[in-house]
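haha ok so turns out i had the wrong file open the whole time. this is the CORRECT one, sorry everyone. sequence first:
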Amino acid sequence: MEIAIISLIQAVLVALITRNSFKAKRAQKKAEAAAQLLAKESLLSMQLQAASVNLSLATAKAIQEGKTNGAMQIAYEEGIKAKSAYDAFLQETISAQLAHIK
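then structure:
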């Protein structure tokens, strides 16, 4: 009888430990995915900010010189590219979030 009770307690403890281990692994995977998403968003955000600064500087230079120049066109194109990449990231992220809600 005592052996059966001890075996039952051991089985329950093993089940609880196993369940907690699975929960911890799942939480770790979620945290890693969130960190990767944040890193991607941060990179795209920095690119967007850099493009904005470059366009601002090119605009200021063009106004100072009284004419547009090649730097203005390059900065404009960089801005469009960075905005498109950031918008695509947002759409992808929102779509993924909505898919999890349903």
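The longest helix spans residues 2-65.
again sry for the mixup
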